[in-house]
Amino acid sequence: MEGIQVQDRAIITPGEVIATGMDYIPSMGTYRDKERIIANKLGMVHIEGRAIKVIPLSGRYMPKVGDMIIGQVIDISMSGWRIELNCAYSAMISLKDATSDFIERGADLTQYYNLGDYMIAEIVNVTSQKLVDLSTRGPGMRKLQGGRIITVNPNKVPRVIGKQGSMVGLIKDATGCRITVGQNGIIHIQGTPKQEMLAAETIHKVEQESHFSGLTDKIKAYLEQRVKEMQLDPTPLIIDEPPRERPMQQRRGPPRFSRGRR
Amino acid sequence: MAFERASGRKVNEPRAMEAKAGVIKNADGSAMFKMGDTIAYAAVYGPRDLYPKFMQNPKKGILRCNYNMMPFSGSGERVRPGQNRRAKEISMVTEKALLPVLELEDFPNAVVDVYVELPQTDAGSRCAGICAAAIALADAGLVMKDMIAAVSVGNLDGNIVVDLDKDEEDFEGPVADIPVAIIPSTGQITLLQMDGEITPEKLVKALELAQETCMRINEVQRKALKDKYAGE
């Protein structure tokens, strides 16, 4: 028997043969055993030309460089903060990556981030031993104040966001909430209590029904109906934000080598 | 003349099986596996941080299994739940039976916890536990080469039978109870224990019977997973 053994988009379990023969290339979630290509994860088969991959349906988040995540401060150390990412490993964010302010040695770090605070950050480095480094330098990265946090299956995040952000944009427009989706499955919603409630409800609906085709239209109809039922006012809440920190000034003059006492 | 079992089953007939994936909401992966009157629930948590720190392995993640029979799960007196000599042994063999298919290199210093709970048992509990754990591990989205299926085979008064129940295990005459776990795609054996005696020739035949039955169990396991995610 040569070729593909299962249908495209079929659910596959670990150990099942997807294809035989050397015409196909094993990709994510599969491995080759001599002639056969076998799944090593539970997921959905995806055949792209010659490449065969399995899209996972479950499992925890795995830190990846470049991902925007939402994390919670779980510890404060001498030189930074430890952040919980809803995965097997926690991350570190150092002082210089968290703020552009000058911080005196021995200063109280809780005025920037305290235990339990949430932040949006980017993963800048992941080592082979899974030490994760974060940074909040860049557009949109900040400390989260107010609003609520909900958690979804990290494998469903692409569906929650939609193509070019279509799904999350739809929910934002209909509810008037400010929504930030972290790649690790943590979502921050901010608006009036009613707006937040509807947004959270809708996101969980997207997560549960992520496999239906034409989901965007369905969610659109659902939102319209719920907005009417709840008599929701979708005008965005005006959130006063502290002015963004000014970017760090580039130091001029010749390079300074000594790190002498000031 | 075919041997008659007290339960009316054929010698190569396992008890009725039932499996369900995703039965415990808070776990990362979970499953129920039922073999006749033996019911096993497995819950998988992780990969997650591992403490105490000295247990961490910087080369790969570790698997930690915990087998537990509930107080009135047995057929006789109350079983004291929690750790005891037998539970420790079964936890260890479960871990060793499952580990060959798991690839934990991506999770240094982390742990995958498997909790197997048995609310009701009628022999073959470690096999049911392994079957449930395999489904739960796949449900948790872990990387694994294959799933593990397990069954007990045995020698009952000179006859080779599969999936012994408690009455058969307690048979007065010569009896052997051999739990076997198998990697279905390769036929490799990851668990082999024995209680009682059997001749070498019969052991080979018994293992063949175990292979055959494990293939059937494996189908039930895969179906459980596919049913959970049907439509996606």
Any key phrases for this structure?
heterodimer, A: alpha+beta, OB fold (Dihydrolipoamide Acetyltransferase, E2P), Ribosomal Protein S8, Chain: A, domain 1, 29% strand, B: 232 residues, alpha+beta, Ribosomal Protein S5, domain 2, 4 helices, globular
Q: Helix and strand layout, with pairings?
A:
The complex is a heterodimer of chains A (262) and B (232).
Chain A: E1 3-4, E2 11-12, E3 17-20, E4 25-26, E5 30-33, E6 36-39, E7 43-48, E8 51-56, E9 68-76, E10 80-84, E11 91-94, H1 95-98, E12 118-126, E13 132-135, E14 143-144, E15 148-151, H2 157-161, H3 166-175, E16 178-181, E17 186-190, H4 193-208, H5 215-230
Parallel strand pairs in A: 4-8, 11-13
Antiparallel strand pairs in A: 1-3, 2-7, 3-6, 5-6, 7-8, 9-10, 9-12, 10-11, 12-13, 12-14, 15-17, 16-17
Helix pairs in contact in A: 3-4, 3-5, 4-5
Chain B: E1 17-21, E2 29-35, E3 38-49, E4 62-69, H1 85-98, E5 110-120, H2 125-139, E6 149-156, E7 159-162, H3 166-169, E8 175-183, E9 188-192, E10 195-196, H4 200-228
Commentary on this structure:
The complex is a heterodimer of chains A (262) and B (232). Chain A has five helices and 17 strands. By secondary structure, chain A is an alpha+beta fold. Chain A starts with a strand and ends in a 32-residue tail after the last helix. By secondary structure, chain B is of the alpha+beta class. Chain B has one domain (17-227): Ribosomal Protein S5, domain 2 (2-Layer Sandwich), CATH 3.30.230.70. Chain B has helices at residues 85-98, 125-139, 166-169, 200-228; strands at residues 17-21, 29-35, 38-49, 62-69, 110-120, 149-156, 159-162, 175-183, 188-192, 195-196. In chain B, α1 (85-98) packs across α2 (125-139). The radius of gyration of chain B is 18 Å and the shape is globular. Chain B starts with 16 loop residues before the first strand and ends with a helix. The interface between A and B is medium-sized, with 29 and 36 residues.
